[in-house]
Specification:
The chain is an all-alpha fold. It contains 24 helices and no strands.
């Protein structure tokens, strides 16, 4: 029987489990397909794109290290905005977070099927789109992820830790082999270091899988409520995972560019092609005579995305658990647990929503572009929440286990960069995303007005600033340069960037002003919960 009575989420997540949970999210399909996609968009300057993406996400990770240690809850990214701005903002944010999270497992299965197409033809079409057989295979893999996530979190994290050792070893081995065997230094200059210019670099950051890859750090944030010692474990897991991922991904991009034969890029970087390019690293390994490495890479093309897909299933289920547990959406329905402490309703919902994401985005790049924009939109509010809670709950009075230095500088920069990533994602992705958000917000407000708490009782004070924020982001992107955002071209890259920076700072000030003036629940949380499990 599955009931909440006497059952709670268990604090079984230690420092290695949390670090590897985040690393498991970072080292997934992104390393298998991202470097080639980034090279096609930016040429050798894709290296710069990985650095920009890594620094941007690292700044966000600093913010979440403070928040997650102060408020260690399962599905913590949902709890944070509730504590700072109330239920309405938290509910809208929970929907955006869910969109970003639930779309990752299908992205991982799409990557697995894409690589498998090299030895099981017919799973992917010539343009990289899944065929009917590919869709069915992806669905079966999603079902496998769901089954594994019915296990207790301790077992899931133990499985993920074992997979992560492999997932770290294979990329590092690949870097070393590619740098030693058949490295062509001339590839970095033969067509120019940045053949697509600045626009190519920025587009690669948002749409080639770069941001998608780094955002795996959030796994430790979502598992904060199941940590034995959040004060010590979370900063190490969050910041450490992004730092390790940054080093690995830059190394992979350098190795990939250098391993290509000059003939592979004879027609320019946008038309890079070689035998086995659907599985680029495995294909290159075969070309340079490293058949044994190609075999390992094909094996890894199953293991790495599987590990990431499994851990994202784990955290997505906990986001849904949090929406119920925090009294936002679904009530006790989403907060039901098995006797092992698993939020099983969330696992089931994640599976079916994952299937739906394979329909509008039946390719790896299509899904990860959407994920990057949606997730950055949800995580970009972290700096808003942190600065609001510092105002309403001064650190001098309410001590944080981890306090980010530098005052408002780092969170402000993190918020601005997050908005740039949404801008770089382009009009097509942002149109789809903001339409979904608008539809959800209208339906939710209508429901609460008629059958819920009533229109006047919605926490409007803390949420109204989202309307000018979302509309402004859509409008700036729509008016952006055509070559970068697919917009009308009203703004150039320079003028659009200036407008975006000013807009971001204005929204940040507005959001902080709109925060809950006396967040009693947050004060109770930081006083009573933060020291749980500390030693």
């Amino acid at each position: 029987m599955m009931s909440n009575e006497g059952v709670k989420l268990r604090r079984d997540a230690g420092i290695i489990g949390l670090l590897f949970a985040s690393l498991g999210g970072i080292i997934g399909s992104g390393w298998l397909l991202g470097p080639m996609t980034a090279a096609q968009m930016a040429g050798p300057s894709a290296i710069i794109a990985w650095l920009i993406g890594g620094v941007a996400v690292l700044l966000l990770s600093f913010v979440y290290a403070e928040l997650a240690t102060a408020f260690p809850r399962a599905g913590a990214v949902i709890a944070f905005p509730k504590l700072s701005h109330g239920n309405l903002m938290a509910t809208i944010q929970s929907f955006i977070v869910f969109l970003g999270y639930a779309s990752v497992p299908p992205a991982e299965t799409s990557a697995m099927v894409t690589y498998a197409n090299n030895y099981i033809p017919g799973l992917v079409g010539s343009t990289g789109i899944l065929t009917t057989e590919g869709f069915i295979t992806s669905a079966a893999l999603l079902l496998l992820f769901a089954f594994i996530n019915m296990l207790a979190v301790k077992m899931v994290l133990r499985l993920n830790s074992g997979l992560t050792w492999w997932k770290l070893a294979i990329p590092i081995l690949t870097i070393v082999i590619f740098l030693i065997v058949g490295f062509h230094a001339s590839n970095f200059t033969s067509h120019g270091f940045a053949p697509m210019g600045t626009s190519g670099v920025f587009t690669a950051v948002a749409t080639s899988g770069i941001v998608f890859s780094y955002l795996g750090f959030r796994q430790a944030v979502e598992l904060a409520g199941e940590s034995k010692n959040p004060k010590r474990n979370l900063p190490i897991a969050i910041i450490g995972s992004v730092g390790i991922g940054l080093v690995i991904y830059v190394g992979l991009q350098v190795a990939f560019i250098g391993a290509l034969r000059p003939s592979d890029i004879a027609n320019g970087w946008a038309k890079v092609s070689f035998a086995g390019s659907f599985g680029p690293f495995a294909g290159l390994a075969s070309i340079i005579g490293m058949g044994w490495l190609a075999v390992l890479l094909y094996i890894d093309a199953f293991i790495s995305p599987s590990g990431t897909g499994i851990i994202y299933f784990t955290t997505t289920a906990r986001v849904l658990y949090a929406t119920g547990n925090e009294g936002l959406v679904g009530g006790s329905f989403f907060s039901k647990l098995t006797r092992f402490g698993v939020p099983y309703i969330g696992v089931v919902v994640t599976f079916f929503v994952g299937l739906l994401f394979l329909l509008p985005f039946p390719s790896w790049q299509g899904i990860v572009t959407f994920i990057s924009s949606a997730t950055v939109l949800s995580y970009g509010t972290g700096p808003v929440v942190m600065m609001t809670l510092r105002k309403t709950m001064p650190p001098a009075q309410y001590k944080r286990p981890y306090l980010l230095a530098g005052g408002p500088i780092i969170p402000s920069i993190a918020f601005i960069i997050s908005n740039f990533i949404i801008f770089w994602s382009g009009t097509s992705t942002d149109n789809f995303l903001f339409k979904l958000i608008l539809a959800f917000a209208v339906l939710y407000v209508a429901y609460e007005s008629i059958a819920g708490v009533g229109f006047k009782n919605l926490h409007w004070r803390g949420a109204w600033w989202l309307a000018p924020y979302f509309f402004g982001m859509w409008l700036i992107t729509y008016l952006g340069p055509n070559a970068l955002t697919g917009g009308t071209g009203f703004f150039t890259l320079v003028s659009g960037s200036i407008v975006l920076i000013i807009f971001s700072l204005a929204i940040l000030a507005l959001a902080i002003y709109s925060g809950t003036p006396n967040p009693e629940e947050a004060k109770t949380t930081i006083m009573n919960e933060v020291w749980l499990g500390t030693e």
